[in-house]
Amino acid sequence: MDTPKRIPPHSGDICAQCPNPDVVSSLKVHFGKPAWEWECSYAEELHVLGEGIEIVCSKLDGNCCVDNNKDYFVVSPKIYPLRSFLEATKKYLGIKS
């Protein structure tokens, strides 16, 4: 990943209303590009028919104010088991991402 070293932002730096403002991001690759990622226990996946997946905040009772699905991504510990299952299933069936 060719990217200049930058100081990882806190979630509160991106959104002042974030109920978990002290979470520090880490630099990850999303859709082939470097992006900041936060792990938040308030984040939940919401499947919207015809739209895909949105990340909602259980404390704000609406969309996550940090995740913009472009440069900033928020994940939850509750999301990882589903992702792992889907990735394992794809490998087993020989499906490439």
Summarize the structure.
The protein has 97 residues and is α+β, with helices and mostly antiparallel strands.
Your description of this structure?
The protein has 97 residues and is an alpha+beta fold. It has one domain. It is built from two helices and six strands, in the order αββββββα. The strands form two sheets. It has a three-stranded mixed sheet with strand order 1-2-6, with no helix packed on it. It has a three-stranded antiparallel sheet with strand order 3-4-5, with no helix packed on it. It is globular.
Helix residue percentage: 10-25%
Distance between the termini: 19 Å
Largest sheet properties:
3 strands, mixed
For the secondary structure, the number of strands is 6
Share in β-strands: 25-35%
Order of helices and strands: HEEEEEEH
| Arrangement of strands in the largest sheet | 1-2-6
Kindly state the mean pLDDT as a whole number?
Answer: 83
Task: Please compute the radius of gyration using only Cα atoms.
Answer: 14 Å
Helix count, DSSP H or I runs of 4 or more residues: 2
List segments where confidence is low: pLDDT < 50 over at least 5 consecutive residues. none
3D shape: globular
Category by helix and strand content: alpha+beta
Total domain count: 1
